Amino acid sequence: MAKKIILKGIVQGVGCRGYTARYARIFGLKGSATNLNNGTVRLLIDCDDDKIISAYISALIQNPKGIMFYGKITDFEVNDYDGKITGDYVF
DSSP class of residue 38? Predict the structure, then answer.
């Protein structure tokens, strides 16, 4: 089952969607990123392996590769997602 991840913090207008896509490629993940009206970013990730999702989120927060990102992720939510992977930034 896919995962829905909501990223909170300074995540809009700072390159977050591209940043999440670059890390997704590093982890071999496919999905999408969408800016939501409440100022968060929703990720839909086609992966059911909780260890990979956890490592992916950890990388997004810690940025071990030093990928350009002008924002800051301060919190997140992860839930199972049973739907089509769509969004305004597909990777």
Answer: T
Q: What share of the chain is helix, strand, coil (3-state, %, to 5)?
A: 25, 35, 40
In a domain? residue 16: yes
CA 64 to chain centre: 15
pTM comes to 0.95
Tokens 């995540």, located at residue: 11
Domain span including residue 33: 2-80
Could you report the per-residue pLDDT of 19-54, keeping only the tens digit for each? Answer: 999 999 999 999 999 999 999 999 999 999 999 999
